[in-house]
Amino acid sequence: MGKPAAVATAMLQCSFGVAPTVLNVLPLSRVMIEGRPAATITDSAPLVNIPTFGMCQTPSNPTVAAATAAAFGALTPMPCVPVTGTPWVGGATTTLVGGKPALTAGATCTCAYGGVIQILFPGAVRTTEG
To answer: Which Gene3D superfamilies match (predicted)?
Structure first.
């Protein structure tokens, strides 16, 4: 059985972010699912596809590390700027959108600072991808 398809406005959460955000999908493939552009595993560009998660709270982020050091070791979250450079992992195995594997619920994307970004709600409720 397939997993729910991810589309524009899917809800995302980073393990080090303080707030969820929505996936932005540019309608380049012109494939619509339930009235919204379908996402692919390559929709992982920082700030283009994956907006900020509010504040970042991992010491592996240089700005958080510097702010924490300035606060004498008290963890000090700083504004999040995702650093994703790789595609999502765990998308559809057989469904292609514009020649690329479709993005589905359960897929994850990794930030260079160690955060794992997951799909909280894929956006599509009736459409599954294989």
So the answer is: 2.60.200.60
pLDDT in tens, 80-101: 999 998 999 999 999 999 999 9
pTM: 0.92
Closest CA to 5 of 94, 110, 82, 87: 94
Q: Tell me, what amino acid is at 71?
A: A
Cα 103 to Cα 114: distance, rounded to the nearest angstrom: 21
As given in the structure block, the two tokens for residue 37 are: 């552009």
Q: Report the alpha-carbon distance of residue 51 to residue 121 in Å, rounded.
A: 16
Distances (CA, A) of 120 to 13, 27, 62, 99: 7, 21, 27, 25
Residue 82 CB burial class (10 angstroms; 0-12, 13-18, ≥19): buried
Task: Parse the chain into domains and list their residue ranges.
Answer: 3-53+84-125
What distance in Å separates the CA atoms of residue 67 and residue 25, rounded to the nearest whole number? Answer: 33
Tell me the fold of 3-53+84-125: Tumour Suppressor Smad4 (2.60.200)
Q: How far apart are CA 32 and CA 38, in angstroms?
A: 5
